[in-house]
Amino acid sequence: MILDSHCHIQFKGFDEERAKVLKLCKKKNIFLHAIGTQKDTSKKAVELAESHDNVFASIGIHPIHLFPTHVDEEESSFVSREENFDEEYFAELAKSNRVIAVGECGMDLFHIPKDRAVEEILSKQKKVFLAQYNFAQKYNLPLVIHVRNAHKELIEVLETLSKPIRGVVHCFSGDWSSASKYLEFGLNLGFTGIITFPIKKTEPKIQEDLWEVVSKVPLDRFLVETDAPYLAPQKYRGKRCEPWMVEEVIDKIANIKKISITETQKLAWGNSLRLFDKIKVK
Ligand SMILES: [Zn+2]
């Protein structure tokens, strides 16, 4: 069994083919963790989890939704909506026993609105991250953390926390110095299809650093994910990413860590159940 520990199967882009994708995942024994990014995508994740026994949900606000920001990526182009962490709204969603985590929340200095000062953005991201951290503590749930171009800033915030933090730094990309910090805080690292990409000739160090992290991460501290519909693994590059493609991530980890695919799959599954301890699988 495999948990795609981070995907957005509830997003509109899957409306036409969601049933087909879910069926294929079921056939392959793949469970899905549908991650909310704002109010409506969190609610949709919960609804989907309540109607499918191989889907679980996370609820929260992604840092790019704190300000209206133009997001233009290979897979999508949109202007994010401005939202705040509405505790009452999320408390209602958290009543569902299919909610296994809070997030994705975190810090992002990649997608930033041009008309705001960096200090203002950082201070709001920090405030909303802490609100979700407190919420997660209250409901005894782990956090799904997003960080892009902001390792230093996030680590500074983590250092101020009074209680231990439980969670995963999803779609980890970075070098061993930031990875080892997160591991010291007790966090897990989630790997996506990015680890299957080839080395970029212009910036070879980025991928070499990431592979070093994969090779060094302890066997009990990694998770696998797709971040679908984004980041299709190398074999499917150019196509929309789907949760079953998480198998490619497992193959790559097995290859880097020089352990078998079966063993890697077992480890990832065990790590997922330990972190997301509300998961009940019959
Ligand atoms: Zn995501």
Key phrases:
282 residues, alpha/beta, TIM Barrel, 8-stranded parallel beta sheet, two-stranded antiparallel ribbon, 10 strands, 17% strand, binds zinc ion
Protein described:
GO terms for molecular function: DNA nuclease activity; hydrolase activity, acting on ester bonds; metal ion binding. This is Hydrolase TatD. α6 links the parallel β8 and β9. The chain is α/β, with parallel strands linked by helices and 282 residues long. The longest helix is centred in the middle third of the chain and has 21 residues. The chain is globular. The protein contains 9 helices and 10 strands. It has one domain: Alpha-Beta Barrel (TIM Barrel). The strands form 2 sheets. It has an 8-stranded parallel beta sheet. Strands 4-5 form a two-stranded antiparallel ribbon. 39% of the residues lie in helices and 17% in strands. The site of zinc ion (ZN) has 5 residues, from loops. The site of zinc ion has 5 residues, from loops.
What is the ordering of alpha helices and beta strands?
EHEHEEEHEHEHEHEHEHH
Measured between the Cα atoms of the first and last residue, the distance is 12 Å
Number of strands: 10
Largest sheet composition? 8 strands, parallel
- Stated plainly, the CATH topology is called TIM Barrel
Pairing-aware structural class of the strands and helices?
alpha/beta
The CATH superfamily name is Metal-dependent hydrolases
Helix content: 25-40%
**Beta-strand residue percentage:** 15-25%
GO molecular function: DNA nuclease activity; hydrolase activity, acting on ester bonds; metal ion binding
Binding site for a divalent metal cation 2: 146, 170
Protein name: Hydrolase TatD
InterPro entries: Metal_Hydrolase, TatD-like, TatD/YcfH-like
